[in-house]
Amino acid sequence: MREPPKIFDVAVLGTGVGGLIAATRLANEKRSVLLLKEDRYQLSFKKDGYCFVPFSNFSERRVRTDLLKKIPFSSYRREDRRQAEKSEQKCSVQLILPEARIDLYQTFPLLQREWRREFPKELNPIENFYAELGRIYQSLKAIKSKEGDGSFFPICRGSLIKRWFSLAHLPKGRSERWLSSFSPEFKKFIELQVITCGNLLADSFPISLISYLLIHEEEEISETNLDLDIMIRSLLEGLIQSGGWVEEIRGVEKIESTGMEEFFISLIGEKRDFRAQSLILNSPYHRLSHLFGKRGKALSRWNKKIRPRYVMFPFFLGLREKVIPVGMGDLLISILNLEKPYEGGNLLLLGLSRKGDERQAPEGKRALTAQCFIPLWKTGKDISYLQDGVIHHLKHLFPFLEDHIELIEKDWANDQIGCWSYPHYLYQVDSDYQWRDGIIPIQLSKNLYFSGRENFPYLGLEGEVLSGIFIGEEISRKYR
Question: What is the CA radius of gyration of the chain?
Answer without folding.
Answer: 22
